[in-house]
Amino acid sequence: MEKLITSNLKLGIIAGGQLGKMLIQEASKWDIRTFVLDNDETCPAGSIASHYVKGSNVNYDDVYQFGKLVDVLTFEMENVNIEALKKLKAEGLKIVPDPGILELIQDKGLQKEFYRGNGIATSDFRLYDTVEDILAGIEKGEIAYPFVQKIRQGGYDGRGVAVINDESDLSKLLSQPSLVEDKVTIEKEVSVIAARNQKGEIRCYPLVEMEFTPNANLVDELICPSSVSIEQSEKAIAYASDIIELLNMEGLLAVEFFIDSNGGVLVNEMAPRPHNSGHHTIESIITSQFEQHLRAILNLPLGSTKLKLPSVMINILGEEGHEGPVMYEGLMESMAIEGVKIHLYGKKITKPFRKMGHVTILSSTLECAKKKAEQVKQLIRVKAWTKN
Ligand SMILES: Nc1ncnc2c1ncn2[C@@H]1O[C@H](COP(=O)(O)OP(=O)(O)O)[C@@H](O)[C@H]1O
Ligand SMILES: [Mg+2]
Questions:
Q1: Of 95, 116, 132, at which residue does a domain stop?
Q2: How far away, in angstroms, is 261 Cα from ligand 1 center?
Q3: What is the 8 CA–ligand 1 centroid distance (Å)?
Q4: Which of 103, 164, 194, 361 sits a CA distance of 20 to 30 A from 342?
C-alpha cells in the first residue's frame, strides 16, 4: 500500500455511524483521506470524514459511484448493495473484506450452513421461507419447543430474533425467510475479534463477556478479561482463527459465541467489521480494533492485541420515554471518576435505547472497574431537550 506514505490514500467507508466515525479517528492519525457514504448528513462520521457523500448503502448507483471515488473500499455494516460491489471489484477496485464474504454474512442462513459445513459447533437449525412452513415443521416433528427463529437478512440488536418457548409464543413468529434453531441454555455470551491481512497473518483479541439489558436485547456491560475457563477461551479463539482463515478474509471478523450449560462453546453469529464488543480496545488494548482493521485491510503488519488494563464497557443508550434533540446528564460527574473514558457519537436526536455513545472504565482490577461502571450507570442519562 505505497500510497500510505504519500498522504494520497483515499479510503471509502460505507456507512457513517459510530463505527465509521471511530475508524476515521484512527485513519486520520496516518493521514489517510476518508470518504464516507451515508444517507444522513448529520451521521456521526459525516463531520469528521475528509469527504461526506450523501447516498444509500443499499442503492446500486450510490454504492457504485461512491466506489469510483476511492482507492480502497471498506464497511462499517454488512447491509451493502452486493451487485454494485461485485461490479466495482470486476473493474479492479480493492474491496476489503471481499464482497463474497459480505454476501455470506448478510444471510444468517448461509452463515449457519457455513458453520455446519466446516465442522464448527453451532446450535442445530433448519431454514424456512414462511410462517406456514414453520408451523408445518412443528406438526411434522422437525421443530421442538423451545426454539429460536431468526430472519435471514436485515436483523440487528435482537430485532429479527423471536424466542418461542411454547405454543403461546407462536404469534411472535416473524414472516420473512428465516432459520429456526434450538434454544441454547446460555451460561455466558462472549465474543472474539480476529484480524487477518493479505499475507495471512492472524491476531485475535482476548475474549470479552457480554451482559445484556433484559428488555432491549442490547449489550448492557461488556467485560474484559472474561471469566471463562482457559480451555473455553482457547476453543473460541481457535474457532475465530479457523473461520477467518477458511474465509481467506482480510480485515476484522467479530465472532459471537454462546457458552452453554454443559460448558460447550457454540458459534452464534459473526460480523466482518469493527464491532460493538471491541470498543474497549481503544483504551484497554495496545492496538485498538479500528487501527487493527486499517492494518488488516491495508496489508500492514498487525498490531499487538495484549490487554493493558482490565476494562468494562457500557453503552450510553437513549432513555425510555425520551425522543428529540439530545441532552446528556451526568457526564462531568462520571469524568471525575478515575479511569472513566467517555465517547459520544454525536447523534443529534435521541430515541429510547438508541446507541448514543459508550463509556470504557479502566482499572487495575476488574472488580474495581465493575464498581465504577455501576456508578457511571447511575449518573449518565440521555434525555430529550425541552425548554422548561
Ligand atoms: N439459539 C439461541 N438460544 C438462546 N438465545 C439466543 C439464541 N440465538 C440468539 N439468542 C439471544 O438473542 C440475542 C440476539 O441474537 P443474535 O443472533 O446475536 O442476533 P443479532 O443480530 O440481533 O445480534 C443473542 O445475543 C442471544 O442473547
Ligand atoms: Mg448478535
A1: 95
A2: 16
A3: 42
A4: 194
